[in-house]
Design a protein that fits this description.
This protein has 50 residues and is mainly α. Helices cover 36% and strands 0% of the residues. The chain has 2 helices and no strands. The longest helix has 12 residues. The relative contact order is 0.15.
Length: 50
């Protein structure tokens, strides 16, 4: 379910000053990790971690 106040576009995230993203996975497919990394990179979020 998506709430009416859920930010869903890159422009909305930037306008709201979002600096961190917390994700709640709903799929166990490992291919989703690469798709997520691509989407975050395209949105301008730097990827960090080990």
């Amino acid at each position: 379910m998506v709430r009416a106040d859920t930010l869903t576009a890159t422009e909305h995230l930037r306008a709201a000053g979002v600096t961190d993203v917390v994700l709640h996975p709903t799929s166990s497919g490992l291919e989703q990790v690469e798709l997520l990394a691509d989407a975050l990179h395209a949105a301008g979020f730097p990827l960090t971690g080990g």
